Amino acid sequence: MQTIQWSAAYSVGDDEIDRQHRRLIDVINRLGQLLSGGHDADGATAQEIFDLLADYVTSHFAYEEQRMVDAGYPLDKVEAHRGEHRRILKSLQAFEVKLEEGNGETLRELLPFLYGDWLTHHICAVDSDYADCLAAERSGV
Ligand SMILES: [Fe+2]
User: Fold this and answer.
1) CA of 38 to the centre of ligand 1 (A)
2) Is residue 111 part of a domain?
3) What distance in angstroms lies between residue 94's CA and the mean position of ligand 1's atoms?
């Protein structure tokens, strides 16, 4: 898989959330390296990268949900968004179980999930929906 570069298409217009999303891209790229070379540039194992992801996702989703509430994003939309986050968390937990069971195909399945479901679908489509709300909050509208 090609290395993913950050681009404006991924931006939600909020520096902190964008910074956190860059970390997800970094994890995807490290997993890609791991799959093609047996280890990533830092020599981390699959389990170490997965642990990093598990830590990251909990704090990232909590941060994002709080920002939405603080910015006055409609509560029904916050709730729907939380549901999407729960869906991603559930999938990650299922991947973790498979990884612990030593299923060798887990990482090959995890990569398209992170790239397709999370980065392309969730960040580009679902997260971008609150971008206008954060922008309005910043401009004091
Ligand atoms: Fe989100």
Assistant:
1) 30
2) yes
3) 19
| Length, in residues, of the chain | 141
Residue 37 Cα to ligand 1 middle (Å): 31
C-alpha 123 to ligand 1 mean position (Å): 6
User: Could you tell me the distance, in angstroms and rounded to a whole number, from the CA of residue 57 to the centre of ligand 1?
Assistant: 10
pTM: 0.88
Task: Report the pLDDT value the prediction gives residue 43, as an integer from 0 to 100.
Answer: 67
Distance 17 CA to ligand 1 centre (A): 9
Give the residue, 41 or 59, on which the prediction is more confident.
Answer: 59
In this predicted structure, what is the pLDDT of residue 74? 95
Range of the domain at 108: 14-138
88 CA to centre of own chain = 9
Instruction: Examine residue 4 and state whether it is found in any structural domain, yes or no.
Output: no
pLDDT tens digit sequence for 54-97: 999 999 999 999 999 999 999 999 999 999 999 999 999 999 99
Q: How many domains, the chain? A: 1
- Domain-located, residue 18: yes
Q: Within a 10 A sphere around the Cβ of 11, how many other Cβ atoms? A: 18
| DSSP conformation letters of 38-64 | SS-TT---HHHHHHHHHHHHHHHHHHH
Question: Cα(58) to centroid of ligand 1, in Å?
Answer: 11
